[in-house]
Amino acid sequence: MSASPDRYAFDTLAVHAGQTPSPEHGAVMEPVVLSSTFAQPEPGRPLRYDYSRSGNPTRAALERCLAAIEGGTSGFAFASGSAATYTLLHTLTPGDRVICGDDVYGGTFRLLDKVCRPHGIETTFVDLGQPGALESAFDARTRLIWLETPTNPLLKVFDIRQVTELARARGVPVVVDNTFASPALQSPLELGATVVMHSTTKYVNGHSDVVGGALITRDEALAERLRFLQNAIGAVPSPFDCYLVLRGVKTLGVRMARHVASATELARRLEADRRVERVRYPGLPSHPDHALALRQMRGGGGMISLDVAGGEPAARRFLASLRVFALAESLGGVESLAEHPGIMTHASIPRERRLAIGLGDGLVRLSVGVEAVEDLWADLDQALARAAGL
Asked: Rounded to whole angstroms, how far apart are CA atoms 169 and 153?
């Protein structure tokens, strides 16, 4: 796409941004360039690329596309969301501190608590939705704020603009993990964030057939640092994985509309069901952050968390009884998935900490796919009946 990205709507950017038909043969789809190295006409003067860890045409197209749909100027693709996270954390040095939301993906907690802490980078976990909590957490060593919104798995919604304004006054960059919302529903850079992180494995790719991650920013100085770290650390995706994510991005807007519509309907029915103790979904008026979600997001998302009546034993029966929803980790694909965070995705977080933030043993996380909503409800209904022993 040759014209300026700000001239186009999201769905148009998702299909075209960063890609132009091949001048050699007119291919409409971005070619997969599988070469690990590139010939140079003379020593030290490559045409554009020299080695695929440092840069690859297919990866570059994906990075341009991701930057465009997030409203950034620089995008960086990685082999996983964790690789993206850890590469960004390498901008810190021993003695620095991170303020992180109290509810985050278990892998992010593991990196911050088990990998970075032994190397002298400390993290304070804070409920960023509590008045005054962020201000109280700042100190002279604070160098980064990390937040997910909506959070994984409790689906809290944090005020990105408020967090970034507080951070900007102190010269501290803010990273927003936008995986649960996707660029189709939320634009953290527009709200003041310094960097957006994605596990592109999830909604961005949307087909559960690739693992990837991304960082997007408008900060050119930080972009230069990330470019160096991406090459030096080398946790980059293969060209074919980049092709798969590019293919997935093209339908992101269409898919997210279906995810949101079905999740909203299922959340309403689950909330009215006596076999469910509590439903967490930002699109429901009962959600404590619903008003903020309406301002900050363009839909409630495709994720639902619910507490099954009867605790962990009932949650286990519920999950074992599902037929359309697959019992599996991950999320954001066209197929519906269900999992138990305490046993699966968030097992790296100590149980006492999980309970303290409200992640109980009966909590189940649903990723609502694009199947017929009545089939999904029938599956949930029969599984809840079995969970209740009916």
From this structure: 30
Pairing of strands 213-217, 195-198: antiparallel
Q: Angle 331-297-378 (CA atoms, 0-180°, nearest 5)?
A: 45
Strands 363-367 and 337-339: antiparallel
**φ/ψ of residue 177, rounded to 5:** -80, 110
Contact between residue 67 and residue 73 where contact means Cβ atoms under 8 Å apart: yes
The model's pTM? 0.94
| Torsion angles phi and psi, residue 284, rounded to 5 | -90, 140
Q: What is the Cα–Cα distance from 339 to 357, expressed in whole angstroms?
A: 18
pLDDT at residue 23 greater than cutoff 80: no
| 3-state SS assignment for residue 101 | strand
Pairing of β 363-367 and β 303-308: antiparallel
Whole-angstrom Cα distance, residue 280 to residue 116?
Answer: 31
* pLDDT tens by residue, 111-165: 999 999 999 999 999 999 999 999 999 999 999 999 999 999 999 999 999 999 9
The CATH number of 253-387 is 3.90.1150.10
User: How do the domains of the chain map onto residue ranges?
Assistant: 8-249, 253-387
Single-letter residue type at 89: L
Q: Which residues are catalytic?
A: 53, 105, 177, 202
- What is d(CA 278, CA 284) in angstroms, rounded to the nearest whole number? 12
Enter the tokens of residue 218. Answer: 């408008």
Q: What fold characterizes domain 8-249?
A: Aspartate Aminotransferase; domain 2 (3.40.640)
Task: Go through 52-69 and write b for each residue having 16 or more CB atoms within 10 A of its CB, e for each that does not.
Answer: bbebbbbbbbbbbbbbbb
